[in-house]
Amino acid sequence: MAGGMEPVPREEKPNPLQDANLCSRLFFWWLNPLFITGHKRKLEEDDMYKVMPEDSSEKLGEELQWYWDKEVQKAKKRGKTPHLTKAIILCYWKSYLVFGIFTMIEETLKIIQPIFLGKIINYFENYDASDEASYFQRRNSAYWYAGALSVCTLILAIMHHLYFYHVQRAGMKLRVAMCHMIYRKALRLSNVAMAKTTTGQIVNLLSNDVNKFDQVTIFLHFLWAGPLQAIAVTVLLWMEIGPSCLAGMAVLIILLPVQTCIGRLFSSLRSKTAALTDVRIRTMNEVISGMKIIKMYAWEKSFAELVNGLRRKEIAMVMKSSYLRGLNLASFFVASKITVFMTFMAYVLLGNVISASRVFVAVSLYGAVRLTVTLFFPSAVERVSESVISIRRIKNFLMLDEVSHFKPQLHGSNENIILDVQDLTCSWDKSSLLSAILGELPKDKGSINVTGRIAYVSQQPWVFSGTVRSNILFDKEYEKEKYENVLKVCALKKDLELLANGDLTVIGDRGATLSGGQKARVNLARAVYQDADIYLLDDPLSAVDAEVGRHLFEKCICQALRQKISVLVTHQLQYLRAANQILILKDGKMVGKGTYAEFQKSGIDFASLLKKDEEVVEQLSVPGTPNLKSARNRTFSESSVLSQDSSVHSQKDGAVEQPPGENALAAVPEESRHEGKISFKVYRKYFSAGANYFVIFILLLFNILAQVAYVLQDWWLSYWANHQEKLNLTTNGNNGTKVPDLDLNFYLGIYAGLTVATILFGIIRSLLVFQVLVNSGQNLHNKMFQSILKAPVLFFDRNPIGRILNRFSKDIGHLDDLLPLTFLDFVQTLLQICGVVAVAVAVIPWMLIPLIPLFILFIFLRRYFLDTSRDIKRLESTTRSPVFSHLSSSLQGLWTIRALKAEERFQKLFDAHQDLHSEAWFLFLTTSRWFAVRLDAICAIFVIVVAFGSLLLANTLNAGQVGLALSYAITLMGTFQWGVRQSAEVENLMISVERVMEYTELEKEAPWETNKHPPPEWPNQGMIAFENVNFTYSLDGPLVLRHLSAVIKPKEKVGIVGRTGAGKSSLIAALFRLAEPEGRIWIDMYLTSELGLHDLRKKISIIPQEPVLFTGTMRKNLDPFNEYTDEELWNALEEVQLKEVVEDLPNKMETQLAESGSNFSVGQRQLVCLARAVLKKNRILIIDEATANVDPRTDEFIQKTIRETFAHCTVLTIAHRLNTIIDSDRIMVRQLTASLLVFFYFLKNNVIDPS
C-alpha cells in the first residue's frame, strides 16, 4: 500500500470461515475458491479475506492493554514490579485451556495405535490355516483390528491439524496485541526514554521478539502432555515386555536433561547473537543512511572493516549455536534407535525370547512417545524460555517513561489564548523552550501554562510516505480555498506544478522525492493548515533560500498567522524587526527581553549577543497582549546527551536539493516480488558459496549412509525375530524338547554395530550440513555488503532504507538461523520417507500399484498448493514492511505527531497495516493446514492399504516383515507431512537467498582504483574546468545540468547561488561522479572520469548539507583510517573551536557518540565536518549549504576559518544567504530556464560588477 497515510480503500472480501459449516471447517473446504484463484493467476492483496472481527489489531491490542494497565496499577499499590506475563495469562487462559482437551485426545490415540498393531502382528505369529475353526475367528478379529487401526489413523489425521490451526491462531492474536501495545507506547515515549532506546531496538522488538509468541503457543500444552504420555507408555510396555522397558525409558529420560542443557546453552548463545546482530544492524542502518557522505569521503573501506568485524563475531556465535542445533537434531534422529537397542539388549540378556509382535509394539510405542518427549517437550521448554526473555524485553520497553500529558486545551471560546512560562528550569540546549512548551521536555521546576491548540514545525522537516496533499492535510477535511491559500503563502504552488502528479505525487520513504527546502515548506504548510492557536516554529526558514525565506516570513508568518500567537526560533537577525517581543537566550539563560525598539534604544548590538550557542526567540503578532515570560535560568548541562533537533532522527535523510525535473526518480518503485519457482541455479550457487564440490559430495554420501544404517538396524531386529520364530515352530514339532538358543553374541553384536554406525553417521552428517550452510550464509553476506558499498548513489535514492536493511536483517537472519536447520531437517525427513516406502515395497512388492496413483495425487497436490502458498508467503512479507516503515516514520515525526494530537490517528493506521498483515498471515496458517489435512489423508490411505494388504497375503508373509512394514507405515503419518512442509519451507527460505543474491549483483559505480593513479601531491593547483557537461542522476532521468562549461581558477573562491532546485547540488554530484556525467571535467589537467573514484574523492573535501556523524568514537569520526597523529587531530579541533567541547567529554576523543552523533547540536556537527576538511588539507573544498542550519555567529566563524585555513585552496560554496558568499571572488548564478544558463559575476568591493 503506497498510500501511507490514507490506506487505499480496498474491496474487502468477507471471510468465508464465518459461515462455514462443520464439515467445511474440519477439512478446510472453505478455502477451495482461494486455491482455484491462486492456481489460475497470481494472488493480489485484494484476494485476501477480511480479518475475522475477533482478530482485529485494535480489539486485541486494547484488550491486552486493559489487562496490562490493571497489572501496572496493582503492582504500584503493592510497590512491586508489574509482570507482563500475568497480564497475558489473565487475558488468554480460558480460550487456551480448551485446546488442551484436543492435545489429550490426540496423544491418547497415538498410544492406542500400537496396541492394535501388536494384535495384527500376533495374528501372523500364530498363523495356522490348517486349524479351520479358530482360523476364521482369528482372521475376522484381525480384520477388525485392521479396521480399528485405520479409524485411529484417520481421526488423528483430522484432529491434529484442527488443533494446530487453533493454537497458531492464538499465537497470532498474542503477537498482534503485543505489536499494538508496542506502537502505542512508542508514540508516548518521553525524551528521556528516547535516549535509552533506539529506533533499531524498537523495530527489533516488533520484528523479532514478538515472533516468539507465534511459536510458543504451539508447544505450550506439551509441558504437561509429555510427562503424562511417557508414564502411560511405560505402563503399556511393562505389560508387554516386563521390566526391561525401563532400560529404554531411561535413555529417553536421560536424553531430556541433556537436551534441556543444550537448549539452555542455545538460548544463552542466542541472546548473545541477538545483541551482536542488533549492533550490526544499527551500524548498517547508519551506513545505508549516510551512504552519500561515506562515498564523498571515500570511507567505504573503513566501514567495510567495521561491519566485517561485527559480522565475524556474530558468525562465530551463530556457528556455535548451529553445532548445538546439529547435535540436537542428530540426537533426535538416533534417540529411538538407542532406546530400542537398550530395551532389547536388556530383554534378551535377561533370558527372554525375542518375538516380532513384542519388537514392533515396542518400536511403535517408543515412536509415539519419542516425538513428544524428545521434540515437543524440549521445544516447549526452549520456546517458553525464549518467550520469557522477549516478554522481559518488551516489558522493559513498556515501562519506559511516557510524556506527561498536560493537554493544552481551550477552556471556553471567549477565553484568551495564553502561553505563560514562569521561572522554568530545564536541562538542554537550543530549541528547548519550544520543547518545554510542547511538554516534551521534563521541567525541573517552574510552570508552563498553555491554553489553546498548538502547531509545531520542527527544525528537521518531517514527511511521511503518502501524497503531498495528505502530508499537508494531515487528516483535516480538504477545503479547496483554504488549501490553495496555504500553498500560496508557503510558496509551494510552483513546486507542485513541476511535480508529475501535482499535490497527489507520492512522496517516497523519508521524503526522497522532495528537496530539503520543499520538505521544510511542506512541514510549514501542514502546520498552517491545522489552523491552531499557538504556532511554535523551530527555525523553519533556514532550509530555504533568502527569497523564499522572505516570502514565507512576510506572507505566511506575518500575514497568514497574524491572528495567532507565533513563537519563532531563529538566528536570522533580519526578521527581528517584525517581532512584538524578542527574547534572547544564552546558555539556556535569558539575557535579554523586549521589543526591537527597546533593544535599539539600549544600544545592544544583536550580533554580539548572538555568540555561538544562542537563539533568538521572537514572538510575533498576537491578539491581546499575552505575556511571554521567559525561561529565566534554564540551566544548561552537557550531560543531557541529545540535541532536540535530532532526538527523533535516527535516520537522516540526505535528500539532494533536487531540481523539479528530477522527480522522474520520485515515487519509490514497488519491491520486486519474484514469480514462480526458485531455479536450480540458486540452490547450486548457495551450496557452492559454502564449500567446494568435493565436500558437497562427501556430505551427500554421509546422508545416505546414515539412512541406510537407520533402516538396517530395524531390519536386523525383524530378521532376528523371524529366525527365532522358525526355531520355535520347528521345535514345537519335535514334541516340546528344549528350544535351542540362537547364537546371541552374533545377533547382538551385529545389532550393536549397526546402532553405533547409525549414531556416528547421524552426528557427522548434522555437523557437516551446518558447517557448509552457515559458511555460505557468511560468504553471501560479505558479497552483498561489498556490492552495496559499490552501488551508485542512485540505488540508495531509489530504495528506501527499510528495504535495503531488510535484506541485511531478515534475509541474512534466515540464512544464519532458519535455513540450515530447515534444510537439514528436510533432508533427514526426505530420506526417512524414502526408507519407509522402500521397506514397504520390499515386503509387499505389489504395494507399488496403489503407491503410484497416490504419488501422482501427491505431486499434483503439492504443485497446486505451492501455486497459492508461494503468493501468500510473498504477500505476507510485503504486507509486513509497511508495519515497520510506519513505525520508523512515526518515530521520526514523533514531536510533530504529538503537537498536532494525531496519535490516535497514527495508531489507527498502524492497526490497519497490522490487519492487512494479519489477513496474509491468517491465510498462510489456514492454507498450510488445508494442505496438511490432505497429505495426512494420503498417508492414512497408505497405512490402510498396508494393513489390509498384508492380511490378504497372510500366507506368503512372516510376522517380522509385516511388523516392519506396518510400524514404518504408521510413522509416515506425521513424518510425510512434515517433510513436505519442510520442503515448501526450504523453498520459501530460499527466497531470502534469492533476494540476497539479487543484491550481490547490483550495478556497480566506476572502480575505486584504476591503473591511472594521479601523483600523491595532485591537485597542487586546484583548477577545475567543466567542458560541455551534461548530468543526469539516472539513465532515463531528465538532464539536471545542460551543456555546462566553466573554468574555476586555482585558489579562487566561488559562490554558487540559485533558487531551490536549480541544480546547485547537482554540480557537486557531477564533480564527485556520484553519477557519471557526460562531457569532461578536468582537475589540474587530469580528466576526472579516468581516475579511480577513491583517488578522485579523497582529494576533494566537502562540508555536506546535512552534517553526518557515525556511532563510534569521536576519533573514528574524524579519522577512520588512523592516518593522523593525536596532535593533528587536536589542532584541527582547536581550529574549529571544538577542542573544549571534546575535552569536556568523559573520554575525550575516545568517547562513544550516541546514535548518529545525536549528542551534538546541528551546529557542532557541522563543525566536526569542518574539522574533517581541515585535517585533509586538500586543495579543493566544497561547501554545500553547510551553514543553512547555523546561527549567524557560527556561520561567520565557519566563514572566517575557511578564509584563513583554506586561503590557498579553491573553494566552491553553495549558499542560500548572500552574506555567506559575499566575500567570494566570483558568484555563479544558476537559473532554471530551458537551457540552464550560468552567469558568472565578479565581485568588486562587494558590488556586483556585470563585466
Automatic annotation (TrEMBL):
Residue intervals of the ABC transporter domain: 386-612, 1024-1245
Give the cofactors, semicolon-separated: Mg(2+)
* Stored Pfam families: ABC_membrane, ABC_tran
- GO CC, alphabetical: apical plasma membrane; basolateral plasma membrane
Q: Does the keyword Cell cycle apply?
A: no
The way it spans or sits in the membrane comes to:
Multi-pass membrane protein
Molecular functions (GO terms) = ABC-type glutathione S-conjugate transporter activity; ABC-type xenobiotic transporter activity; ATP binding; ATP hydrolysis activity
Which chemical reaction does it catalyze? glycoursodeoxycholate(in) + glutathione(in) + ATP + H2O = glycoursodeoxycholate(out) + glutathione(out) + ADP + phosphate + H(+); cholate(in) + glutathione(in) + ATP + H2O = cholate(out) + glutathione(out) + ADP + phosphate + H(+); urate(in) + ATP + H2O = urate(out) + ADP + phosphate + H(+); taurocholate(in) + glutathione(in) + ATP + H2O = taurocholate(out) + glutathione(out) + ADP + phosphate + H(+)
| Designated name of the protein | Multidrug resistance-associated protein 4
Write down the species: Zonotrichia albicollis (White-throated sparrow)
